[in-house]
Amino acid sequence: MRPSTLVRFGIATVVVGLSGCGIDSPSHADTSTAKRPPLEGQASVAPGVRLASRATAQVATLTSSLRAIDVHMRMLTAHTGVLWGYRGNHFVLYETADGGHTWKSVPLPTLPADDISAYGPGGAHDVTAVIDSAAMWSLVSVSHQEAHVWITKDAGRHWRETTLPLPTGAVQFAAGQWMAGRLGWMLFESGGYDGVAAKYLYRTENSGDSWQLVATSTGDLPHNGVRTAMSFAPNGKTGLMAVVDDLEKKVDVVETNDGGAHWQPTSINLPSGITQPPSVELALAGPGETLQLAVEVQVGSASQLLVMNSSYGSSWDVAEIGVDNLEAMCASPAGDLAALEDKSGQQTWMVSPDGGQTWYTQAAAGLPASIATAASVSLSSPSPNTFFLVALDARLAPTLYESSDAGDTWQPLG
């Protein structure tokens, strides 16, 4: 995938909220220590206390009302899903029940403000969503050596806040995942200056009531690199973490089979002569201890997509395909791989039913050529035949598209 066109200030973008599709930061100091008053349309939440939200939700189409930037979307079914980003310097969250055609704002607790228009997304005070189901969501923000985690189990009607003290140097959230509303993982890291980013993995077994630090870079986790992809399998034990080391132009991969307490390095063979830092397009831990990685590399003037399949403790099988300009990639619930490529000015849809060994391509009817100039593009697939696409322009303003026929045709939403 192309490098982001956004300006970064010292800290690189990291990947969060992995759900099997796609892979999702500059920080600025906040010297204010005073508690911010509740904002209009928000519900304050005391630590460990449940409070009902009082905001009035409004329904509107995407184009008429959202006006959100740095948008991320997680569709849970072909009809229901959530979308989050920033409106001005405030975090916003919306939900849809009609496949993304209309959206309803979700009442939120008091959250820290973050002027991403000036500083870019990510970093200190940036709020990130980690979605588990249609009812359970969490929001995460880091400030003053603490992680603040807000959790709802009733789609935003009530929120509970917990505060997690972090080790010295941990300044940003890197990745997170929930499983069945009970198991959860949160990965934090240091600033990433000079390519160094110490990592700290926390785990909960009681829906976030308490968290334990289970792994760090002083033990088994990679120490360098700030672009991190992490995934845990449905068994709650098998896991995969892939970290891009921009300076060395390599990907460090570790795997676990005890829920993240212990990790072991695994060797992946990348081609020699890589001229740009690789990009992790997909990282999945699946049933039966299966593991899957998709990495794009630049060798000379040619780009290659490497799809790697393995199981815990085993070697990786690698399939390779040449690509012109890979824009986004994901896996459907059926296990098919899907990718979008800009090929000679035309949006091209690629599908592999066998783990990257064979690819079928066709024109992506309905997707404009302008997507090739987007700052970022992400794909998600809540069902085997349904795909959603979010494209952010240079100002991080979103355009959404949907396909209900497995990517054959696309329609804009809103």
Automatic annotation (TrEMBL):
InterPro entries: WD40/YVTN_repeat-like_dom_sf (IPR015943). It comes from the Bacteria. Gene3D superfamilies: YVTN repeat-like/Quinoprotein amine dehydrogenase. This is Photosynthesis system II assembly factor Ycf48/Hcf136-like domain-containing protein. It comes from Alicyclobacillus acidocaldarius subsp. acidocaldarius (strain ATCC 27009 / DSM 446 / BCRC 14685 / JCM 5260 / KCTC 1825 / NBRC 15652 / NCIMB 11725 / NRRL B-14509 / 104-IA) (Bacillus acidocaldarius). The lineage of its organism: Bacteria, Bacillati, Bacillota, Bacilli, Bacillales.
